[in-house]
Each structure stands twice: as structure tokens, then as C-alpha cells.
Amino acid sequence: xxxxxxxxxxxxxxxxxxxxxxxxxxxxxxxxxxxxxxxxxxxxxxxxxxxxxxxxxxxxxxxxxxxxxxxxxxxxxxxxxxxxxxxxxxxxxxxxxxxxxxxxxxxxxxxxxxxxxx
Amino acid sequence: xxxxxxxxxxxxxxxxxxxxxxxxxxxxxxxxxxxxxxxxxxxxxxxxxxxxxxxxxxxxxxxxxxxxxxxxxxxxxxxxxxxxxxxxxxxxxxxxxxxxxxxxxxxxxxx
Lengths: 118, 111
What we know:
The structure holds two protein chains of two kinds. Chain A has strands at 3-6, 10-12, 18-25, 34-39, 45-52, 57-60, 68-73, 78-83, 92-100, 104-108, 112-116. Chain A is mainly beta. In chain A, strands 2, 4, 5, 6, 9, 10 and 11 form a seven-stranded mixed beta sheet that branches. Chain A has a four-stranded antiparallel beta sheet with strand order 1-3-8-7, with no helix packed on it. Chain B is mainly β. Chain B has no helices and nine strands. Chain B has strands spanning 9-12, 18-23, 35-40, 47-50, 64-69, 72-77, 86-93, 100-102, 106-110. In chain B, the strands form two sheets. In chain B, strands 1, 3, 4, 7, 8 and 9 form a six-stranded mixed beta sheet that branches. In chain B, strands 2-6-5 form a three-stranded antiparallel beta sheet, with no helix packed on it. The radius of gyration of chain B is 13 Å and the shape is globular. In chain B, 36% of the residues are buried. The mean pLDDT of chain B is 94. Chain A binds chain B through residues 35, 37, 44-47, 50, 59, 61-63, 95, 101-111, and chain B through 1, 3, 34, 36, 38, 45-48, 51-52, 57, 89, 91-93, 97-105.
């Protein structure tokens, strides 16, 4: 069965960076893009970007363009996101999700809570 | 960043039907058939229940249905069950500068 397992909770100070890893299984990793979405406490879901695993094509939300990097390692079957220059507003749960078709996020990871605090 | 508008809450009794709206503009829902709905239970990841306006993924009960008229998408839950109590989010293609946008979520309460 399709599963996406994410790395564990992170705590960072303002100005630091965080990297979250997503490890999919149960399907051909290179055949589907990976999207990243976050959710601050009590807030709506927010799309960060996506990476097309097969050809490494990336697309970022303009809001995060300057400080977000998405990557993948096909040999290790994992996708990663790095968010830099963190502020308290980046405190949220971050999700990876498998993409299918156009904007169809059909399977999600369990989420990774990130807390940014001095 | 533009966003979609949902009512904050909706409710119904077991067995009843409830419809949740998702209002966008001519730049997003109005020009896109890439509307999805997600169900999220507390402490859990979102779950896809409708995509491409009205298509249900395998395993999602046919009690869930989606539709769209102009710039408003709708999710109808028929034959409400206790396990349907959750927060429901809509999403849509938002254009080149807002690739994927979400609604604020609707908390569905089964009375």
C-alpha cells in the first residue's frame, strides 16, 4: 500500500534552517511528483511547492521561492524540503503528499511539526 | 495570496445531507476543473475525498459528492454518519502565481 513516512518533530531558533525528509513506499517513486503543504495551528492549509521526481523539475509558491529548496534522492527513495531563515510564523505542521494528475494530492505523510522559538 | 472562502461551520443529524460551499473567483475555481476536497480529523493528515470537481478516489463512499457552478464549488455529504465529523477543506488551481490554493476549512458537526 502507498505510504509516505516523514521525519520527526523539529525545534529551531529564529534565523535557522530546517530540513524535513519524506520517504514514500508502495509505488514507483519516480513516477509521481511530491508536493509539500503546511498548516499552522488553527490555520488553513498552505501549498509550498512540488518536485517532479523523475526529471527534478521544481515549482515553488512565490511566497517561499527565496528560502525553500525541494530535492529528492532516487537511490534512497526520499524527498526533502529545506526552509531557511525561519521565523515564528513558520511554526506549523509540514506535510508531504504524492501528486497525481493535476493538483491531485492522493496520499499524505503523517506530518512533521516544526516549532520556531527563541 | 488569494484564498478560497468556506463557511466556518456546518452541521446535520445522522442520516441527513449537508452541503459545504467553497467560493472562489473567475481566476481560480471559475476557470479550473482542478477542484479537490479533503477531510481532516483532529491530529491527522488531510485525506483526499474528491478531485477534479466530482471524482471520488477508490475507497471513498458515494455519500460524498462534488459539484461546481461558476466560481463556487460544493461538497455534499449524504446520509451523515458520526465518522463524517471532521474539518473539510477545498482546493483549486489558483493561476500561475498561486499554483494551489485552499479554503479556510469547514468544521462539520454531526448532531
